Every structure is written in C-alpha cells, then in structure tokens.
TrEMBL record:
Pfam families tied to this protein: 7tm_1 (PF00001)
Protein name, UniProt field: G-protein coupled receptors family 1 profile domain-containing protein
Tree of life domain: Eukaryota
Keyword list, A-Z: G-protein coupled receptor, Membrane, Receptor, Transducer, Transmembrane, Transmembrane helix
Organismal lineage: Eukaryota, Metazoa, Spiralia, Lophotrochozoa, Mollusca
Alphabetized Gene3D superfamilies for the sequence: Rhodopsin 7-helix transmembrane proteins
Amino acid sequence: EIVFYVAVNGVIGCLGCLANVINIIVFVKQGFKDSVNISLFGLAVSDLGSLVAIVWESVCLNPLFFDSGSAFSTVDIHYLTSAVPHGIFVRIAWWITTFITFERCLCIAMPLKVKQIITPRRTVYIIVVIFVLTFLGMSPLIMANRIGPVFVPALNRTQVVRIYRENGLFIENLGLMFNISFQFGSFIIDFICTAIIIQQLNVKSKWRNESAQISGSGAKEGLATRDRKVVKMVTLISVIFIACLMPSCVNFLLGIVLAPDYTIMGRQQNLFLVIWSTIFTLESINSSVNIFVYYNMSSKFKAVFDDLF
C-alpha cells in the first residue's frame, strides 16, 4: 500500500504534472483553430487535475503524515480532497478520450462532412459539457458528507472526520451509479469507435493498394505507410485507454460479486487495497504518457515542443 500509494504514485504524479503542463503550453502555442487541439488541451487539463489529486494522496497516506496524531482523520480528508476529485478528473479525461476517438471515427467514415459536423466552436461546447456534467454527476459523493468532530474510542480522543448527512448514503449511491454508468459507457463507446476506425482503415488501405497496382502509379507504398501510421496511433491510444480502464471495470464487478466482504474493512481487505492501488497507478500512467504519444506521432506537436524546449 505504501509502495504504490505513496512512492510510485507520488513520483508518477509529479512527473505527470510536469508533462501535462508542457502539453498545455504546447497546445496554447499551437492555437485553438483546430478541433483536435481543443480536445487534447481539455484532455491535458483533466489529466493535470487528476495527477494533482494523486500527488496530494501520496502526502495524505504517507506514514509520517498518516500517523502524526493530527486533529483530523487523514483517511477521510484524503477521500474528500483527493480520491473524489481524482475520480472526477479521470472520468472527464476518459470521456474526452472517447470523444476524440469518436471524432476520428467520423473522419474515417465521413471525411467530407466531419469538419461541418465537429467545428472548433462545437468542440469547445462539448468539452465544457463533459466537465460540467461530470462534476454535477459525481458531486453527490461530496455532498453526501460533512466534516465534524467525533470521539474515536480506538484513539481515545476527538478527531475531525467525515460524517454522513441525513440521507447521505442514498445521495452517495446516486453518485456511485453515475460513476459506474459513466465509466462503462466511455469504455464501450471507445471500443466500438476504435474497432470501426481500424476496420475502415483496413478496407480503404486495401482499396488504395489495389488501385495503385492497377494504375501502376507507385503510390501503393506511400499510402500503405500513411495508413499504417494512423492505425498505429489509434491503436496505441485505444490500448493505453482500455488497459488502464479495464482493471477499474473489473474492480466494480468484484464489488458486486464479493459484497459486502470486498471493502476496506471487509474480509477481502488485502485484495481491495491491492486492486485499488493498481487502479490508481494505471490511471496515473494513463494521464502521464500522452506527451510521448504526441511527440512521436504528431509532427506539429514535436516542432512546437522542440522550438520551446
């Protein structure tokens, strides 16, 4: 628990924050006339928010802070100020990633109409809606609680802890249901769009190759190479997203199958902590590695990055 939550996630979080600050600077320098840049800027902002929460988590769960005998419960403060905000920003990042995949799907399926359908102005609206809707949908996880002093017999002293409001459990469950539906929804849509993109690119690549052979224009190699680069980029983004999201989906399924033992205080406590620490680490990695994808697969990003740094 200490290794993952404090050491690994703390280091990844700090490096990821730096990487996303660089991403934001580069996208601002590139401008926002392109809808893709707007989406990637929104993704960088949400990734930065999730990683700031991860860094704060590594502080809250550090034994030096956790066992310091403070007047407040570090576990409860961590939940309200780190775990929930991290979850909000991660869900935002997932849906922005799904939107980017959907946009690329339209580019392949309707190349002549996509710029009329997804304009920069509409992209801004969509990104803002994703932010607002996610904040509103997961706000019950915070609204269900209040902070107050409670005597803790195990410590033989009073601590400031998280206390459920009236009907707090019901309110919190609303946020959890939204969280689960948002999570599985983004996973399913992204998976379908990625499958369509790969299938369409393979079909068009085959058609272009056959046309090049018939015409003898020598365009076969160049077109095939270009298509392979697009497929590689889309596949890489999808694999990173799905690989980092899958354990979280499995975790929710375990919570249903093993409930009520699968909790932080239940009989499956060790399994619960191991899986959650793995999930947070994968989410941190997912939010941190985009800079390498952009630098290696976007000539515009690479040019601006090299010019600035």
